[in-house]
Amino acid sequence: MILRIPETYGKIREATSELRFDMASDLYTGSLLKTLVAAKPAGLFLELGTGTGLATAWIAAGMDEQSSLVSVENNAILIEVARKYIADSRVTLVLMDAYEWILNYKGPGFDLIFADAMPGKYDLFDETIGILNSGGFYIIDDMLPQPNWPAGHAEKVEHFIRQMEDRDDLLTTKMNWSTGIMIVVKK
Ligand SMILES: C[S@@+](CC[C@H](N)C(=O)[O-])C[C@H]1O[C@@H](n2cnc3c(N)ncnc32)[C@H](O)[C@@H]1O
Q1: How far, in Å, is the centroid of ligand 1 from the Cα of 114?
Q2: Contact 6/27 with Cβ under 8 angstroms?
Q3: Count of CB atoms within 10 A of residue 60's CB?
Q4: C-alpha to C-alpha distance for 60 and 161, rounded to whole angstroms
């Protein structure tokens, strides 16, 4: 049973169903993100792939007043839902291609990155780890086989996991839970 679901979650969930957006993150992922960001007071957090803002709402719910979150999405219709329901001065919602955003980012490092789109996960992985602070969390979901995986994706996932596990600067835990979450920490 997942408790203390963010207040805005129900409304965003409804709008998400109306749009038939089927890539939304689940409650387990949200709850974990909320818990992990609470471990980083005055933290700076990044979400790649806002969607309609379900995980965004969870991350914001775990943040203290000094923390802030940047969330990047390239679909105007989806991010509009997040904009409508998440009015929070600590949260910046960026409508932009995340490939471009990652490559151009020059600001301070992040304490947690939820990489929920191709850029930052299967693409531009090194660049994304490059903007994660030491001791920062890199979180990804959908690492267990999902019904919507296209042909060839399972091999891509295997290769990606090996790529992370081969790096000496990363500590990794693969969880057979939710959609298959990996918790990665940068030394
Ligand atoms: C798995 S969904 C995100 C789900 C969301 N984080 C949640 O909690 O429900 C992936 C999102 O990445 C977005 N996306 C895909 N390619 C992108 C890109 N190049 N730049 C920014 N966003 C992208 C998609 O539009 C989609 O909303």
Answers
A1: 11
A2: no
A3: 23
A4: 28
**Closest ligand 1 atom number to CA of residue 49:** 12
Please tell me the distance from the alpha carbon of residue 102 to that of residue 123, in angstroms, as a whole number.
Answer: 10
128 C-alpha vs ligand 1 centroid, how far in Å? 15
Distance (Å, whole) CA 95 – CA 183: 26
Task: Please write the tens of the pLDDT for every residue from 15-64.
Answer: 999 999 999 999 999 999 999 999 999 999 999 999 999 999 999 999 99
Kindly report the protein residue whose alpha carbon is nearest to atom 15 of ligand 1: 117
Give residue-wise pLDDT tens across range 95-148: 999 999 999 999 999 999 999 999 999 999 999 999 999 999 999 999 999 988
